[in-house]
Specification:
6 copies of one chain form a homohexamer. The first copy, chain A, has 185 residues and is an alpha+beta fold. Chain A is built from 4 helices and 8 strands; from the N terminus they run βαβαβαβββββα. Chains A, B, C, D, E, F: This is DUF366 domain-containing protein.
C-alpha cells in the first residue's frame, strides 16, 4: 500500500470518491491513500450516505484536509472497520503532536461538541473506498466544528502525510499479523 | 453481539481461546465478548503466535483483565482489523477515565516502554477469535509492564464492562454503517 | 432484520428493486423485508431476468401482494437460496391458514397449473435483493394464475405480515444456528 | 451434484459427518448427497450441536433414513440456509406422496408435537456438511416422535431417492438462477 | 461450463465485454466461453484497462480470434489467475499444433518481440469477465505483432474451439481437484 | 511474496505440507514459496489426496526438487488455479532453458508418458498450501518418470530459484492487474 501527497489545492465535491481516482490522477497502482487540501462541498445528488440525504444534511467546509483510501476488496463491512481504525489513527497521530482533547465516536472525531471530521465508506464496482475530511478552519461551517488550525496543527499536509504513513504501515502490519498464527480448536 | 462479565476469577492458560468458549461456559450464543480476571500463563505448546514461539517469548502475568472475542466469520485479516480497533477502544475508554498517557502500536498498548497488554487473533474451525489481556499489576512480569492499577483503575471488571459495552455498540454501528450507502462509480 | 408493512397502495414497476429502497422510503436501516400491495407491470427495459427478456415474457398483474427483501451480502447464489426458502415459507404460512393445495417448483408457487407468484433475486452495487409478488386476483393475467383471494385469503396485508414476520425470525434463527456447532474432521 | 443410495444398512453414530465421507465410501467426487438407513445413536463426544450437549440431549432412534450432504463451500450460514431448504424439500416430497400434516419449524419437521427429524449443519476443514435423519419408526425414541412408517411411507429408500433427486435438481437450478440476471442500481 | 463457436464474423469494439453477453446472444446459461472472429477496435471510452488509457494505447487489429469468458464469481484476483491460465492454455494448444516459439509474459503471448494477444479481465455487476484477442494477421497493427496465420494456423475457429474445449475441461477438473483432499494441520 | 532456497537436503514425507512450515523453519513471514531437494516418500496416512489413497497410489522418488507454497487465503479452488499456473510456469521456465518437450495435463507435467511431477493443493486451518515435487532422477520410481537430469538440468536448485522468482513476480503482477481496471456493465 502506498500514499501520495498532492500539494496543489484540490476541492472535494464527491466526484473524487470514484474507483481508481488515485491511479488515474496520481499514478499509484494498487491499494492507496491520497492526501490533499481544499474545500468540501457535496451536493445532495453526489452524497453517498443516504442517512445524510434523508436528514437533508449539507456537507460544507471552506478548507479541509482530505484522505481518499482505496482497498481492492469487496467486503464493505471490512472497509468500515478499516475506516474506524483510520479515524482512531488520526486521533492518535494528533496525540503524538500534543493534541489530547479529541474523542472518537464511530467514524467521527470531536473536541467537546465540535466536529473535526466528515467520513464515509462505500463500494465501487471494483473496490471499496473511504473518504475522510478534517476541517482545517472552523469558519462558516453549518454545524459547530473545530479545525486542525484550532488544534495548533500548522503544517497541515505534513500532518496528513504522518497519518497516511502510519495507515500504510498498519495495513501492512495487519496483513503480516494474519500470517503468523496457528489455528485453534 | 453480547457481552458477559465473569465475576469469579479465571486464570488464562490459552485453552480459553477455543471456539464456542463463551457459549459453552456462559451460555452466550452468537458473536460475543467475555470479560474475566485472573493470571495469564501460556506454555509454548499452547501459544498460537508463532512469532512468540520462535522468539521463545514467555507470556506471564500474575493478574490480568482478559477479553475473549468471537466473531463467526472466517476472514482472519478482518478479525485482525477488529482486534486493532479493540485495542484503540481500550485506550479510548481509559482516556474517558482520565488516563491519557497510553500509546497504541499495532495490537499493543504502552505507557512509555511499559507494556499494558498482550493480544492475539486467530481462526478456529468455525469462527475467528481474539484474546486480549491487560496487566492489572505490573509485579513479576518478564518484561517492563504497566498495570491498570498503576493507571489508577480501581474497579477492574467495571472498566472491562465499559470496554465490552463500547465494543458491542461499535460492532453493531459498523454493521449499520455498511447498510446506508449507495455505491459509487 | 426488520419488516415494514406499507398500508397505502403502491404499484410495482421494477424500479422498486433498487438498493436501499426500504431505507429511503420507509426508514428501515439494515436487512429488511417490506410488504405492500398494488399492480405489477414491468416493462422489458426494467426486467432483470434475462430469461424473461429472451422469452419476451411480459409480467403483469392487476393486484399483487409484494415483498422486497434486501440482504447486505454480495453472494447472489446465497440470496437465491434465501429466495427459495422465502417461497417455501409463503407456502407454509398459507398451509397454516388452511391452504394445502400449493406446490413449489423452484422460485414459483402453483396450484395445479395456475401460477400464484413471480419472483427474482439479483445484486445491487451494495446488497442483494429479492422481489416476490403474489397475485391477489387472477383476473386479466397473461397466463393461467391463481390469486390469494381464490385461496380464501381475505386480509392480504395481514397475511403478508405473517410471512414477513416468519422470514425475519428464520433469518435470525439461521444466524444463530451457524454459531452453535463445533467443526468436524 | 450427485446422489448415491446405499442399500445396505448403515448405522449413524456421528462419525459419518466427516469431510469426503461419500467420496471415500461410495466414490462420489464433488458435491453430493448420500442416502442410507440404519439406527442413530450419537454419543455426547460425537455431538456437533453444542446446544444439544449443553441440554444433555441424547440423540437416539432405532431406525432412521439418513441424508449426508457435502458442499465444498466454507460459508456455514449459507449451508444452514441450504439445510432449511432441504427440510422444506423433504416436507414437499412427502406432500407429493399425500402426507399433508407436517409442519417445518427451522430445521425440524413435526406432525403435531411429534418430531420426525434430527438435523445439523457444520464445517469440516475443506467443506460444509449437513446430516438429516428421519425416523422410520417411532418406537423407543427418548421424545415423542413420528416415523415415516406412521406416515404411510413404505419404501423408505425410494422416498429418500426422491428427496435426493429433487435436492440435486434444485441445487443445480439455484446455480443457474444466479447466472441469468442483470444487476440493479 | 460450456462453450460456443460463433461462425459469423463479429467485430469486437469493447461492448461485448458485458455481463450475460453470451447468454443474451448465444443462449448459453451459466459459466461460458464464446469464440468468434472479427476486427478489434476499442475506443478510449470503451477501454477497461486504465493502464492503456493512461498510456493512450490504442487497441486495433484488422482480424482477431476473440474469446469472451464469464465466471459467476466476484473475486477479480481469482479471475485474473484464470486469465493467466487461459493464456498458458492458448500457448499449450499452439504447441500441440507444432508452434513452439511462443513465450508468455503475464497475460501476453509473444513470439520474440511480436505480440500475439491482447487481454483483459474485469468485473461486471453480477460476474467476472475475460476478453482475449489473438491476431490472425499481423497487417497494419500499431505495434509489432504476430498473427495465427504467421504461425501456420489455417483453421482459426477450429483452433479457437480446441482452446475453448480445453479451458472448459480444465475449469471442471479444477473444481473436482478442490473436492478430493483432506485438510492439513 | 517471498521465496527461500534451502540448500541443505531435506526429504519430503508429507509433514512439510503444514501451515507456517516456511515461517517456522526459514523465517519467511507472509505468502511464500520455499525450494529444497530431497527424497519423496509419503505414506498412506500422510497423503492428502484421497484419490491417491483410494487408488492405493504410492508416492516415491529418490531425489526430487520440492516447492512448498503458502497463500493466506481460504478459497481452495483459487489455490488450485494457482497450482495449475505454477505447473505452467515450471514448464515455461524449462522452455527458457531449452526443454521444449513437456506437456501439462492439469497439475501434472509429462514428457510423453513419463511423469515429471507430483503435486497437491489443500487447505490448512489458516491458509492454503501447494506441494509440487519434480523428479531429479527417474531411477527406481514406481511408474514411468522423467527427471530434471534427463532433461539436461544440471543445477537443480538454481532452476528451482528461477521458478520461485517467476512465481513470486507473477503473484505480484496478478495482484496489480486486479487493481487497474474499471468495471463493465
Amino acid at each position: 500500500m502506498n500514499y501520495f501527497i498532492e500539494h496543489k489545492p484540490l476541492n472535494y465535491d464527491g466526484s473524487q470518491l470514484q474507483s481508481l481516482f488515485t491511479y488515474k490522477n496520481f499514478g499509484l497502482k494498487g491499494e492507496s491513500i491520497v492526501v490533499f487540501r481544499g474545500s468540501c462541498r457535496v451536493e445532495q445528488n453526489e452524497m453517498v450516505d443516504l442517512e445524510d440525504v434523508l436528514a437533508k444534511d449539507w456537507i460544507y467546509s471552506e478548507d479541509m484536509l482530505h484522505f481518499i483510501v482505496e482497498h481492492f476488496e469487496m467486503d464493505l463491512e471490512k472497509t468500515v472497520i478499516r475506516q474506524r481504525l483510520l479515524m482512531a489513527t488520526i486521533k492518535e497521530v494528533l496525540e503524538g503532536q500534543g493534541v489530547k482533547t479529541l474523542m472518537r465516536s464511530g467514524d467521527d472525531l470531536y473536541e467537546d461538541k465540535n466536529k473535526l471530521s466528515v467520513s464515509i465508506a462505500t463500494l465501487s464496482p471494483v473496490s471499496s473506498m473511504i473518504h475522510c475530511g478534517l476541517n482545517v478552519s472552523n469558519a462558516n461551517t453549518p454545524i459547530p466544528t473545530v479545525g486542525l488550525k484550532n488544534l495548533g496543527i500548522e503544517d497541515v499536509l505534513a500532518f496528513g502525510e504522518r497519518v497516511a504513513q502510519r495507515y500504510c504501515t498498519e495495513v501492512q502490519s495487519i496483513r503480516l499479523a494474519r500470517c503468523k498464527v496457528r489455528g485453534v480448536c
